[in-house]
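Give me the 3D structure for L-lactate dehydrogenase.
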Amino acid sequence: MSENDGDDLGLTGVTAGQVRRTSKLAIVGAGAVGSTMAYAALMRGAARSVALYDINKAKVEAEALDLGHGIQFMPMAEVVGSDDIEVCTGADVVVVTAGAKQKPGQSRIDLAEATISLVGKILPPLVEVAPDAVYIMVTNPVDIVTYAALQQSGLPPTQMFGSGTVLDSSRLRYLIAKQTGVAVQNVHAYVAGEHGDTELPLWSSATIGAVPLLEWNGINGRGPLTSEVRDGIAREVVESAYRIIEGKGATNYAVALAGSRIIEAVIKDEQRILPVSSLLDGYHGIRDVCLSVPALVGREGVGERLEVPMSADELAGLRRSAETLRAVARRFGF
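Predicted structure for L-lactate dehydrogenase (334 residues):
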Protein backbone atom coordinates (compact mmCIF):
# COMPACT_ATOMS: atom_id res chain seq x y z
CA MET A 1 0.00 0.00 0.00
CA SER A 2 1.29 3.46 -0.89
CA GLU A 3 2.12 6.33 1.43
CA ASN A 4 -0.89 8.16 0.01
CA ASP A 5 -3.28 5.32 0.80
CA GLY A 6 -5.11 7.37 3.43
CA ASP A 7 -6.10 9.94 0.81
CA ASP A 8 -7.37 7.20 -1.50
CA LEU A 9 -9.63 5.94 1.25
CA GLY A 10 -11.04 9.31 2.21
CA LEU A 11 -9.15 9.40 5.54
CA THR A 12 -7.49 12.81 5.21
CA GLY A 13 -7.75 14.81 8.43
CA VAL A 14 -8.78 11.88 10.64
CA THR A 15 -7.93 12.59 14.27
CA ALA A 16 -7.94 10.45 17.39
CA GLY A 17 -11.42 9.28 18.32
CA GLN A 18 -12.89 9.81 14.85
CA VAL A 19 -14.37 6.92 12.88
CA ARG A 20 -12.20 5.93 9.94
CA ARG A 21 -14.30 6.28 6.77
CA THR A 22 -13.74 3.79 3.99
CA SER A 23 -15.58 3.19 0.75
CA LYS A 24 -18.23 0.47 0.82
CA LEU A 25 -19.82 -1.38 -2.08
CA ALA A 26 -22.88 -3.56 -1.64
CA ILE A 27 -23.87 -6.03 -4.35
CA VAL A 28 -27.36 -7.52 -4.27
CA GLY A 29 -27.39 -10.96 -5.82
CA ALA A 30 -24.56 -13.49 -5.62
CA GLY A 31 -25.24 -15.21 -8.93
CA ALA A 32 -22.95 -15.24 -11.97
CA VAL A 33 -23.10 -11.47 -12.51
CA GLY A 34 -23.04 -10.38 -8.86
CA SER A 35 -20.17 -12.58 -7.76
CA THR A 36 -18.11 -11.77 -10.86
CA MET A 37 -18.76 -8.07 -10.34
CA ALA A 38 -17.51 -8.38 -6.76
CA TYR A 39 -14.37 -10.07 -8.11
CA ALA A 40 -13.83 -7.38 -10.76
CA ALA A 41 -14.37 -4.55 -8.27
CA LEU A 42 -11.91 -6.12 -5.83
CA MET A 43 -9.30 -6.67 -8.53
CA ARG A 44 -9.59 -3.03 -9.61
CA GLY A 45 -9.50 -1.76 -6.02
CA ALA A 46 -12.84 -0.02 -6.53
CA ALA A 47 -13.88 -0.19 -2.86
CA ARG A 48 -12.25 -1.02 0.47
CA SER A 49 -15.26 -2.98 1.70
CA VAL A 50 -17.44 -5.25 -0.45
CA ALA A 51 -20.68 -6.74 0.89
CA LEU A 52 -22.56 -9.46 -0.97
CA TYR A 53 -26.25 -9.94 -0.17
CA ASP A 54 -28.36 -12.87 -1.35
CA ILE A 55 -31.28 -14.86 0.07
CA ASN A 56 -29.28 -18.05 -0.53
CA LYS A 57 -27.22 -18.10 2.66
CA ALA A 58 -24.91 -20.98 1.75
CA LYS A 59 -24.20 -19.56 -1.72
CA VAL A 60 -23.48 -15.98 -0.64
CA GLU A 61 -21.27 -17.03 2.28
CA ALA A 62 -19.32 -19.40 0.02
CA GLU A 63 -18.79 -16.71 -2.62
CA ALA A 64 -17.53 -14.23 -0.03
CA LEU A 65 -15.21 -16.83 1.49
CA ASP A 66 -13.78 -17.77 -1.90
CA LEU A 67 -13.18 -14.10 -2.74
CA GLY A 68 -11.69 -13.43 0.68
CA HIS A 69 -9.13 -16.19 0.23
CA GLY A 70 -7.68 -14.24 -2.71
CA ILE A 71 -7.41 -10.84 -1.00
CA GLN A 72 -3.65 -11.36 -0.56
CA PHE A 73 -3.31 -10.97 -4.32
CA MET A 74 -5.52 -7.88 -4.67
CA PRO A 75 -5.59 -4.31 -3.33
CA MET A 76 -6.43 -4.54 0.38
CA ALA A 77 -10.15 -4.98 1.05
CA GLU A 78 -12.70 -6.72 3.24
CA VAL A 79 -15.35 -9.05 1.81
CA VAL A 80 -18.47 -10.20 3.64
CA GLY A 81 -21.48 -12.18 2.46
CA SER A 82 -24.84 -12.59 4.16
CA ASP A 83 -28.53 -13.33 3.71
CA ASP A 84 -29.25 -10.47 6.13
CA ILE A 85 -29.89 -7.18 4.35
CA GLU A 86 -28.14 -5.34 7.19
CA VAL A 87 -24.88 -6.33 5.50
CA CYS A 88 -25.58 -3.46 3.05
CA THR A 89 -25.82 -0.84 5.83
CA GLY A 90 -23.97 2.38 5.07
CA ALA A 91 -22.97 1.45 1.53
CA ASP A 92 -21.72 4.21 -0.76
CA VAL A 93 -22.85 2.27 -3.81
CA VAL A 94 -25.49 -0.45 -4.08
CA VAL A 95 -25.48 -2.54 -7.24
CA VAL A 96 -28.59 -4.62 -7.88
CA THR A 97 -27.93 -7.72 -9.98
CA ALA A 98 -30.69 -9.96 -8.59
CA GLY A 99 -33.46 -10.86 -11.00
CA ALA A 100 -34.97 -13.51 -13.22
CA LYS A 101 -32.42 -15.35 -15.34
CA GLN A 102 -32.54 -14.83 -19.10
CA LYS A 103 -33.02 -18.10 -20.99
CA PRO A 104 -31.77 -18.86 -24.51
CA GLY A 105 -34.07 -17.23 -27.07
CA GLN A 106 -35.72 -15.01 -24.45
CA SER A 107 -35.60 -11.24 -24.91
CA ARG A 108 -34.69 -8.91 -22.07
CA ILE A 109 -38.22 -7.49 -22.12
CA ASP A 110 -39.63 -10.98 -21.47
CA LEU A 111 -37.90 -10.87 -18.09
CA ALA A 112 -39.59 -7.67 -16.99
CA GLU A 113 -42.58 -8.80 -14.97
CA ALA A 114 -40.81 -11.21 -12.62
CA THR A 115 -37.83 -8.92 -12.16
CA ILE A 116 -39.89 -5.78 -11.46
CA SER A 117 -41.80 -7.69 -8.78
CA LEU A 118 -38.58 -8.90 -7.15
CA VAL A 119 -36.92 -5.47 -7.23
CA GLY A 120 -40.06 -3.91 -5.73
CA LYS A 121 -39.72 -6.21 -2.73
CA ILE A 122 -36.03 -5.71 -2.04
CA LEU A 123 -35.72 -1.96 -2.64
CA PRO A 124 -37.57 -0.56 0.42
CA PRO A 125 -35.41 -2.42 2.97
CA LEU A 126 -32.29 -1.57 0.95
CA VAL A 127 -33.09 2.14 0.94
CA GLU A 128 -33.76 1.92 4.68
CA VAL A 129 -30.25 0.60 5.46
CA ALA A 130 -28.42 2.57 2.75
CA PRO A 131 -30.43 5.77 2.16
CA ASP A 132 -27.47 7.82 0.91
CA ALA A 133 -26.04 5.24 -1.49
CA VAL A 134 -25.95 5.67 -5.23
CA TYR A 135 -27.99 2.80 -6.69
CA ILE A 136 -26.88 1.13 -9.91
CA MET A 137 -29.38 -1.24 -11.48
CA VAL A 138 -27.84 -4.01 -13.58
CA THR A 139 -30.76 -6.44 -13.70
CA ASN A 140 -32.37 -6.87 -17.12
CA PRO A 141 -34.35 -5.42 -18.76
CA VAL A 142 -32.31 -2.66 -17.18
CA ASP A 143 -34.13 0.37 -18.61
CA ILE A 144 -37.59 -0.81 -17.56
CA VAL A 145 -36.31 -2.07 -14.20
CA THR A 146 -34.59 1.26 -13.52
CA TYR A 147 -37.73 3.22 -14.38
CA ALA A 148 -39.88 0.98 -12.17
CA ALA A 149 -37.32 1.09 -9.35
CA LEU A 150 -37.35 4.90 -9.36
CA GLN A 151 -41.13 4.85 -8.93
CA GLN A 152 -40.97 2.15 -6.24
CA SER A 153 -38.10 3.63 -4.23
CA GLY A 154 -38.91 7.33 -4.31
CA LEU A 155 -35.20 8.06 -4.79
CA PRO A 156 -34.21 11.11 -6.85
CA PRO A 157 -33.25 10.27 -10.46
CA THR A 158 -29.67 11.40 -9.88
CA GLN A 159 -29.24 8.77 -7.15
CA MET A 160 -30.47 5.76 -9.11
CA PHE A 161 -29.58 4.77 -12.65
CA GLY A 162 -28.94 1.68 -14.72
CA SER A 163 -25.77 0.23 -16.21
CA GLY A 164 -27.41 0.92 -19.57
CA THR A 165 -25.29 0.59 -22.70
CA VAL A 166 -21.86 0.81 -21.06
CA LEU A 167 -21.34 -2.85 -21.97
CA ASP A 168 -22.90 -2.43 -25.44
CA SER A 169 -20.55 0.49 -26.12
CA SER A 170 -17.63 -1.69 -25.09
CA ARG A 171 -18.81 -4.39 -27.49
CA LEU A 172 -19.12 -1.77 -30.24
CA ARG A 173 -15.59 -0.47 -29.66
CA TYR A 174 -14.22 -4.02 -29.59
CA LEU A 175 -15.77 -4.84 -32.97
CA ILE A 176 -14.62 -1.54 -34.54
CA ALA A 177 -11.12 -2.20 -33.26
CA LYS A 178 -11.12 -5.70 -34.77
CA GLN A 179 -12.35 -4.35 -38.10
CA THR A 180 -9.84 -1.51 -38.31
CA GLY A 181 -6.80 -3.12 -36.66
CA VAL A 182 -6.31 -0.38 -34.05
CA ALA A 183 -6.26 -0.66 -30.28
CA VAL A 184 -9.72 -0.67 -28.72
CA GLN A 185 -8.58 2.09 -26.36
CA ASN A 186 -8.26 4.42 -29.38
CA VAL A 187 -11.86 3.85 -30.48
CA HIS A 188 -14.40 6.30 -29.08
CA ALA A 189 -17.99 5.39 -29.84
CA TYR A 190 -21.25 5.08 -27.93
CA VAL A 191 -24.35 2.96 -28.15
CA ALA A 192 -27.47 4.86 -27.08
CA GLY A 193 -31.11 4.04 -26.37
CA GLU A 194 -32.42 0.79 -24.94
CA HIS A 195 -30.03 -1.84 -23.63
CA GLY A 196 -31.63 -4.25 -26.04
CA ASP A 197 -32.98 -4.74 -29.53
CA THR A 198 -33.75 -1.06 -30.32
CA GLU A 199 -30.35 0.31 -29.27
CA LEU A 200 -28.31 2.22 -31.84
CA PRO A 201 -24.64 3.12 -32.37
CA LEU A 202 -23.96 6.85 -32.62
CA TRP A 203 -21.81 6.60 -35.72
CA SER A 204 -21.83 10.32 -36.54
CA SER A 205 -19.99 11.25 -33.31
CA ALA A 206 -17.64 8.24 -33.21
CA THR A 207 -13.91 8.66 -33.71
CA ILE A 208 -10.86 6.44 -34.21
CA GLY A 209 -7.97 8.31 -32.67
CA ALA A 210 -8.81 11.85 -33.71
CA VAL A 211 -10.35 10.80 -37.04
CA PRO A 212 -14.16 10.88 -37.36
CA LEU A 213 -15.24 7.27 -37.90
CA LEU A 214 -17.31 8.16 -40.98
CA GLU A 215 -14.16 9.66 -42.56
CA TRP A 216 -11.93 6.67 -41.73
CA ASN A 217 -10.23 5.45 -44.92
CA GLY A 218 -8.52 2.43 -43.44
CA ILE A 219 -4.91 1.52 -42.69
CA ASN A 220 -2.66 -1.51 -43.19
CA GLY A 221 -4.71 -2.74 -46.10
CA ARG A 222 -8.02 -2.55 -44.22
CA GLY A 223 -10.73 -0.57 -45.92
CA PRO A 224 -13.14 2.05 -44.61
CA LEU A 225 -16.16 1.28 -42.45
CA THR A 226 -18.82 1.23 -45.15
CA SER A 227 -22.52 1.32 -44.30
CA GLU A 228 -22.67 -2.46 -44.85
CA VAL A 229 -19.79 -3.04 -42.43
CA ARG A 230 -21.37 -0.70 -39.87
CA ASP A 231 -24.72 -2.48 -40.16
CA GLY A 232 -23.01 -5.81 -39.55
CA ILE A 233 -21.23 -4.46 -36.48
CA ALA A 234 -24.48 -3.01 -35.10
CA ARG A 235 -26.25 -6.37 -35.53
CA GLU A 236 -23.44 -8.21 -33.78
CA VAL A 237 -23.54 -5.80 -30.83
CA VAL A 238 -27.24 -6.55 -30.34
CA GLU A 239 -26.97 -10.29 -30.93
CA SER A 240 -23.77 -11.05 -29.04
CA ALA A 241 -25.49 -11.37 -25.67
CA TYR A 242 -27.90 -13.94 -27.10
CA ARG A 243 -24.96 -15.91 -28.53
CA ILE A 244 -23.16 -15.90 -25.19
CA ILE A 245 -26.29 -16.94 -23.28
CA GLU A 246 -26.93 -19.75 -25.75
CA GLY A 247 -23.37 -20.99 -25.43
CA LYS A 248 -22.69 -20.68 -21.68
CA GLY A 249 -25.98 -19.76 -20.00
CA ALA A 250 -25.14 -16.22 -18.88
CA THR A 251 -23.01 -13.18 -19.61
CA ASN A 252 -20.84 -12.30 -16.63
CA TYR A 253 -17.24 -11.24 -17.32
CA ALA A 254 -17.71 -8.18 -19.54
CA VAL A 255 -20.80 -6.92 -17.69
CA ALA A 256 -18.91 -7.24 -14.41
CA LEU A 257 -16.00 -5.22 -15.75
CA ALA A 258 -18.38 -2.60 -17.14
CA GLY A 259 -20.18 -2.46 -13.80
CA SER A 260 -16.96 -2.11 -11.84
CA ARG A 261 -15.98 0.81 -14.08
CA ILE A 262 -19.25 2.57 -13.21
CA ILE A 263 -18.70 1.82 -9.51
CA GLU A 264 -15.24 3.42 -9.64
CA ALA A 265 -16.62 6.51 -11.36
CA VAL A 266 -19.04 6.98 -8.46
CA ILE A 267 -16.79 6.12 -5.51
CA LYS A 268 -13.83 8.10 -6.86
CA ASP A 269 -16.06 10.97 -8.07
CA GLU A 270 -14.43 10.83 -11.49
CA GLN A 271 -17.07 12.77 -13.46
CA ARG A 272 -16.54 10.17 -16.16
CA ILE A 273 -18.67 10.19 -19.30
CA LEU A 274 -20.55 6.88 -19.48
CA PRO A 275 -23.70 5.88 -21.41
CA VAL A 276 -25.75 4.89 -18.38
CA SER A 277 -29.53 4.51 -18.35
CA SER A 278 -31.16 7.40 -16.52
CA LEU A 279 -34.47 9.22 -16.38
CA LEU A 280 -34.52 11.77 -19.19
CA ASP A 281 -36.33 15.08 -18.90
CA GLY A 282 -36.20 16.90 -22.22
CA TYR A 283 -33.05 15.36 -23.74
CA HIS A 284 -33.50 16.05 -27.48
CA GLY A 285 -37.18 16.35 -26.59
CA ILE A 286 -37.28 12.94 -24.87
CA ARG A 287 -38.70 12.70 -21.34
CA ASP A 288 -40.26 10.35 -18.79
CA VAL A 289 -38.27 7.30 -19.86
CA CYS A 290 -35.01 5.67 -18.76
CA LEU A 291 -32.59 5.00 -21.56
CA SER A 292 -28.89 5.42 -22.24
CA VAL A 293 -27.13 8.54 -23.44
CA PRO A 294 -23.60 9.72 -22.57
CA ALA A 295 -23.71 11.33 -19.12
CA LEU A 296 -21.39 12.50 -16.36
CA VAL A 297 -21.11 9.98 -13.51
CA GLY A 298 -19.62 10.87 -10.13
CA ARG A 299 -20.13 10.74 -6.39
CA GLU A 300 -23.63 12.23 -6.52
CA GLY A 301 -24.71 9.72 -9.15
CA VAL A 302 -25.67 10.62 -12.70
CA GLY A 303 -25.31 14.27 -13.63
CA GLU A 304 -25.49 16.26 -16.84
CA ARG A 305 -26.37 14.40 -20.04
CA LEU A 306 -24.22 15.35 -23.01
CA GLU A 307 -26.14 16.78 -25.95
CA VAL A 308 -24.28 14.60 -28.44
CA PRO A 309 -24.67 15.74 -32.07
CA MET A 310 -26.80 13.17 -33.90
CA SER A 311 -27.84 12.62 -37.48
CA ALA A 312 -31.53 12.75 -38.33
CA ASP A 313 -31.60 8.95 -38.53
CA GLU A 314 -29.88 8.57 -35.15
CA LEU A 315 -32.25 10.99 -33.47
CA ALA A 316 -35.24 9.19 -35.00
CA GLY A 317 -33.81 5.87 -33.78
CA LEU A 318 -33.34 7.20 -30.27
CA ARG A 319 -36.94 8.42 -30.21
CA ARG A 320 -38.18 5.03 -31.47
CA SER A 321 -36.22 3.35 -28.70
CA ALA A 322 -37.81 5.70 -26.15
CA GLU A 323 -41.32 4.93 -27.47
CA THR A 324 -40.67 1.20 -27.28
CA LEU A 325 -39.57 1.48 -23.66
CA ARG A 326 -42.50 3.74 -22.76
CA ALA A 327 -44.92 1.20 -24.22
CA VAL A 328 -43.38 -1.61 -22.15
CA ALA A 329 -43.45 0.52 -18.99
CA ARG A 330 -47.16 1.25 -19.55
CA ARG A 331 -47.80 -2.47 -20.01
CA PHE A 332 -46.54 -3.02 -16.48
CA GLY A 333 -48.47 -0.11 -15.00
CA PHE A 334 -45.70 2.50 -14.86
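Residues 57 and 143 are 29 Å apart (CA to CA). Let me know if you want a second pass.
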